[in-house]
Each structure stands twice: as C-alpha cells, then as structure tokens.
C-alpha cells in the first residue's frame, strides 16, 4: 500500500517567508485493522527482551590553546632611600647614613640583631648540617643496569603548537640545519642554537636568518630571537659573562650579542676584514677581560678578535702546512679546539682530513704551525680534547672516530670500526674519561665506552629519521643535545651508568692510553727504520745509474771491442765444431750450413756491419736451427751413408 501526499503552492508564493501558527491536530490517513489477517498471527511464548540500564555517554573533544609564558624581569638598582635623597649622589647618602646611625632606635636594633646573629654563627660552627660524612665514597657503585637514554624534550624551530598542526605558518620554506649548540654556562637550562642552510644551491631569497635561544622550561617559544645579517653557522656563550654570545656568520662576518639589549647584534665585523667563507668555529679565549675570541673558516685563516673592537682582527694565521704563508696553499678549517688549561695552544681540523696543532705565542707565523696529524679521508667534523687527559684528543670524520695522542704523529692510538653511514659530530663525556659520543648521518647517536667494549658502541639510539648535524653535552654529563638537518633539537637524558665515574676508571683509562701510545711509538720506529732502508737502497741504485752514465767513452769502446771479439771467437769455435760434424753428413747440407754460417757473420756478403748484440742473437738463432735439424727424422739414404762410413 503506497501513501502519497502532495503539497502544492502557487508560483507567486515561492520565496515568501513561512508563517507558522498553532492549530488543532488533523487526521490525514486512517488505516483500519484487517480481520482476515488475524488468523496468521502467531503468539510467541516466552518472549526475550533486553534492557540497557547504563546511562548513555557521548565523547566530546576540545582543542585549547597552549599557554605561552614570557620571562620578564625588573632591573632593581637600589632602594629604601627617601624620596628627597638621590642614591647616585655619594655626599647625600653619606650624610643620611650618619644621621641614621646616630638614632637610638637604630643602635638598639643593631645590638638586638647582633646577639641573634652571634647565636646562629656559634650554632653553625658547632654543627654543620651540610657536612658529608662519607666523602671518601665519592665514586658510588652503579647498579648493573644496561646503558640507556630517554628523550626528555624536542625543540622545533616552529614557535607554537599550532605551527606544528598547520605547517603553512612556518615562515621557512627550506628547513635549516641546526649547525651548532651552546649550553648556558651557569644554569644549563638555556640552549643557544645556530640555524643555517649549508647547502649553497638550496638557499632561498626568503629564507630566515634568525637563530634562537631556547628555555628548556618553556620549549614552545624561543626566549630570544637573534637576528644576524647572515645566517649563523657557529654560536657560543661567553663562559665569563652568560649574557654575551659570539657568532660566526655564513658570509664570514663575526658578531656578538648582549641578551640584555635584545636580539640585534651589538657589533658586527666589516666584510673587508672578515673571513671569505662561512665561519665554522668560534671559541672564547681565556683572558682577563673576557672579551677575546678567535675564529676559523674554510678560507684557510684563523683570526683573533676583541669584541670591544670588531672593526679589525687583532691577529691572523694562514693555515699553510708548507709554512710559506700563502693563502692559496692554505687548508680550509672546519672545526676549532681550544683547551683553557693550555692557553697558547690550539688545534684546527681541516677539510682535507688533516689536524693542525698550533702555538699562538711562536715568534714567526711558520713556527706557529707545530705539527700535523693525518688520519681521515674527508673533513674533520669534530676535534675535542679529553677533559681528563688534555694530551689525548678525539677526531670524527669520514666513517670513523679516532683517538690520538700528541706524542704520536703518524697514526691514531685507537679508532672505531667503519660505519655504513657518515659520522657528523662527536664529543667526550665531561664526567667519564673513557666515554665519548658520536652522531651519524642516518640519525643515530652512538655512546662509546672503550673500557667496556671497543668493537661496538655501548649504546646506539635512533634519534630521528633525518641526519644528525651537531652534538653538545651539558657540563653535568647527563643531558646531551642533538641537532638535525631539518632544525630539530632533541634532548636526551643518559642513564646513570654512563654519566657516573666508575671505580678505578681514571687509572684504567690512563693505563690504556699509555699502552696504546707506547705500541704506536714502537710501530712508528719500525716504519721509520724500514723507510730509511728503502731510501738507502733506492739511493744506491741511483748512484750506480749515475756512475754508469758518467763512464769514460774510451772504457765503453774497449768493453764493446772486447765483447765483440769474444763473440767472434765463440762463433769460430762453433763453426769448427760444425765442420767436423759435417764430414759425416751430406756435402750439400754442409755447404748450406757453411753458407748460412758465413752469411750470419758480421762481415758476410750483403750484410754490412752489425753490432755485437746482433751477432749474439744470430749465433743463438744458428744454434737453435742446428738443434731443430738434429731433431728432424733422418731419411733412408742418410742412414745407409752412415752405415758405409762406419
């Protein structure tokens, strides 16, 4: 049965607003029951029914904005003075102090507080609540737990949570690499990150030049945005003044910032006196003023600066290992190393895989390059001294990481296996002398403990899918920061076993370094001895050749004449032998032999004069021909003639 109800409206009423009104209910269709269908009705007994007694719940989602926190401070100079007194005026403050000190209330208060303070001082001298009773147990026993690391924070260049959801809000179309990390020297709760795209062909015109200082307690937004004139490749906190940072730019300029003055650089070096290539290394020097630093670049120069006057460098050095001081022969610097305990020495890692050891206080520029170490095929991306043994340093390049000693120049004392992916950075542990870290281009962080295992890393952790580009460890040795090619900085907390000094670790590490250094010295001495022997042998051969070349012409002529007559005499003896043997054979055969032998002589008809060497060769050919004739099968006539002769 089909029910159809048609609603009609005039064409003129189309588009008019509807006006609803209340009216009583109206029956449109009434279907009465059919008695004939009652016989088909089946009664169900029993009847099962289900009832849901729980309340109906609905799920709702709400997307709330994340709280953005800003750090603000007040610069409090001096307070507590009356309004009519200027704290900057010394005479007014002295006059007011004398007036207050004469007040009886002031004297009584000071006497009362003095007794209380005296009681506290005596109590503190009697009982030291901070005394450590087990100081000798400094090296605590570490639980036998496997080495591990966990991610505690991920810092992205995006400035808010919504930038993660909506990538179009990211102003940088080309992702920039986190090229350098620097921890805050005091709190270690702030991290300065330099961002730059080191791929020249991918640099966009609209690419951002900004680098950031992150507060780890508020990683959603950078605490300060540094705005250089060119992207920063290196960035370092001043260890003496945590408000000051120095940075090396992509275009070779040097700049420094004071965080109290904002994100713009305080001063920038001029292009004419700066580097010609990106500044890959910038390190603060140990000085009284705390304003001196030096930088290195792939243009082959090391420049010293004073940030109070960046108009020109205070000193320069050309990295020419031929010691001629030519810039066209200089090796490009990729990394710098400076140890404050050795203020005059520094080391440079180059693009050619050579490590250059330098001494700044040498008298002449050629003497500043003291020694070189060659051990890598590609650029040296990391160069760090061991904080416990400054004469031992770590280099990272190509597919290996190598440990060197200053006493062995020709070869490293220890090295890792060759990895399948390129190594990009490395550093020593600040608390354990036998632990160091390396990063790889496949996004893996390796932690090595050569006292525990030497063939493989103690811990390998896949940090991200993109290549890791930079690495920096906190001073406490427990947190490590890894920067990636796409600009993401991952902070990892290392397990206690890898950041706690083990018992007798320093003694064992010292013994291993000394043993490997001694072994390399023995091998170097052996190789040096073999090279000297080879050189002496080659020089002896050269002198013989020179003597033969300088020989007297008369001696050469006499020797040639003597050899000539020796060959003639040998030929005549051979002919006599052939004649005696030819009497037994055929006369024609003998004649042929004689003719052939006569033609082979140097005075033979139609032959002209020949050299001694030609006579020797022809005599040899004659003897070979005779041997062939003797080996040929003899005919019947020759056999009969031999019988008759017998």
Automatic annotation (TrEMBL):
<feature type="compositionally biased region" description="Acidic residues">
    <location>
        <begin position="541"/>
        <end position="552"/>
    </location>
</feature>
<keyword id="KW-0677">Repeat</keyword>
<dbReference type="InterPro" id="IPR036322">
    <property type="entry name" value="WD40_repeat_dom_sf"/>
</dbReference>
<keyword id="KW-0505">Motor protein</keyword>
<keyword id="KW-0969">Cilium</keyword>
<dbReference type="GO" id="GO:0036157">
    <property type="term" value="C:outer dynein arm"/>
</dbReference>
<feature type="region of interest" description="Disordered">
    <location>
        <begin position="533"/>
        <end position="552"/>
    </location>
</feature>
<dbReference type="InterPro" id="IPR015943">
    <property type="entry name" value="WD40/YVTN_repeat-like_dom_sf"/>
</dbReference>
<keyword id="KW-0206">Cytoskeleton</keyword>
<protein>
    <submittedName>
        <fullName>DNAI2 protein</fullName>
    </submittedName>
</protein>
<feature type="region of interest" description="Disordered">
    <location>
        <begin position="576"/>
        <end position="646"/>
    </location>
</feature>
<dbReference type="InterPro" id="IPR001680">
    <property type="entry name" value="WD40_rpt"/>
</dbReference>
<keyword id="KW-0853">WD repeat</keyword>
<comment type="similarity">
    <text>Belongs to the dynein intermediate chain family.</text>
</comment>
<keyword id="KW-0243">Dynein</keyword>
<dbReference type="InterPro" id="IPR050687">
    <property type="entry name" value="Dynein_IC"/>
</dbReference>
<dbReference type="GO" id="GO:0045504">
    <property type="term" value="F:dynein heavy chain binding"/>
</dbReference>
<keyword id="KW-0963">Cytoplasm</keyword>
<dbReference type="GO" id="GO:0045503">
    <property type="term" value="F:dynein light chain binding"/>
</dbReference>
<keyword id="KW-0493">Microtubule</keyword>
<keyword id="KW-0966">Cell projection</keyword>
<dbReference type="GO" id="GO:0003341">
    <property type="term" value="P:cilium movement"/>
</dbReference>
<dbReference type="GO" id="GO:0005874">
    <property type="term" value="C:microtubule"/>
</dbReference>
<dbReference type="GO" id="GO:0036158">
    <property type="term" value="P:outer dynein arm assembly"/>
</dbReference>
């Amino acid at each position: 049965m089909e029910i159809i109800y048609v609603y009609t409206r005039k064409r003129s009423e189309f588009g008019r607003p509807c006006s609803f009104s209340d009216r009583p209910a109206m029956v449109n269709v009434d279907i009465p029951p059919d008695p004939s269908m009652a016989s088909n009705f089946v009664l169900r007994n029993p009847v099962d029914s289900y009832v849901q007694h729980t309340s109906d719940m609905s799920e709702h989602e709400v997307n709330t904005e994340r709280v953005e926190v800003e750090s603000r401070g007040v610069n409090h100079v001096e307070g507590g003075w009356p309004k009519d007194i200027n704290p900057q005026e010394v005479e007014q403050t002295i006059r007011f102090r004398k007036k207050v000190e004469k007040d009886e209330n002031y004297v009584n208060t000071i006497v009362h507080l003095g007794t209380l303070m005296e009681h506290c001082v005596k109590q503190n001298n009697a009982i030291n609540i901070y005394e450590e009773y087990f100081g000798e147990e400094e090296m605590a026993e570490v639980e036998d737990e496997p080495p591990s690391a966990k991610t505690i924070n991920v810092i992205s260049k995006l400035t808010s949570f919504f930038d993660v959801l909506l990538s179009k809000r990211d102003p940088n179309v080309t992702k920039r690499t986190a090229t350098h990390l620097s921890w805050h020297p005091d709190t270690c709760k702030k991290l300065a990150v330099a961002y730059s795209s080191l791929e020249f062909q991918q640099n966009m015109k609209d690419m951002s030049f900004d680098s950031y200082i992150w507060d780890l307690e508020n990683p959603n937004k950078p605490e300060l945005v540094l705005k250089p004139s060119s992207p920063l490749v290196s960035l370092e906190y001043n260890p003496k003044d945590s408000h000051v940072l120095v940075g090396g730019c992509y275009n070779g300029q040097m700049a420094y910032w004071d965080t109290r003055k904002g994100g713009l650089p305080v001063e920038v070096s001029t292009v004419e006196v700066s580097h010609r290539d990106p500044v890959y290394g910038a390190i603060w020097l140990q000085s009284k003023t705390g304003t001196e630093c030096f930088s290195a670049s792939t243009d082959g120069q090391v420049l010293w600066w004073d940030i109070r006057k960046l108009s020109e460098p205070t000193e320069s050095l050309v990295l020419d290992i031929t010691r001629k001081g030519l810039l066209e022969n200089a090796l490009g610097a990729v990394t710098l190393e400076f140890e404050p305990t050795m203020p005059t020495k520094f080391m440079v890692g180059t693009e050619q895989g050579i490590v250059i050891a330098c001494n700044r206080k040498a008298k002449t520029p050629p003497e500043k390059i003291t020694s070189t170490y060659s051990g890598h095929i590609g650029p040296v991306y990391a160069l760090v001294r061991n904080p416990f043994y400054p004469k031992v340093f770590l280099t990272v390049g190509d597919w290996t990481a190598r440990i060197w000693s200053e006493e062995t120049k020709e070869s490293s004392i220890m090295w890792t296996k060759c990895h399948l992916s390129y190594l990009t950075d490395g550093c020593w542990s600040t608390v354990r002398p036998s632990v160091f870290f390396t990063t790889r281009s496949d996004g893996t962080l390796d932690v090595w403990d050569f006292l525990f295992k030497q063939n493989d890393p103690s811990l390998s952790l896949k940090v991200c899918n993109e290549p890791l580009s930079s690495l920096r460890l906190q001073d406490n040795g427990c947190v490590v920061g890894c920067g990636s090619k796409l600009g993401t900085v991952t902070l990892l907390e290392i397990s206690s076993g890898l950041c706690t000094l083990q018992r007798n670790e320093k003694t064992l590490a010292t013994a291993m370094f000394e043993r490997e250094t001694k072994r390399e010295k023995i091998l170097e001495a052996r190789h040096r001895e073999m090279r000297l022997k080879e050189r002496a042998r080659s020089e002896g051969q050269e002198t013989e050749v020179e003597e033969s070349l300088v020989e007297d012409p008369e001696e050469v002529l006499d020797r040639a004449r003597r050899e000539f007559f020796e060959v003639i005499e040998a030929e005549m003896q051979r002919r006599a032998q052939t004649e005696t043997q030819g009497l037994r054979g055929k006369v024609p055969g003998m004649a042929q032999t004689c003719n052939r032998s006569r033609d082979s002589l140097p005075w033979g008809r139609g032959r002209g004069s020949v050299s001694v060497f030609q006579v020797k060769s022809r005599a040899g050919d004659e003897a070979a021909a005779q041997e062939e004739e003797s080996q040929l099968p003899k005919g019947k006539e020759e056999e009969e003639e031999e019988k008759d002769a017998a």
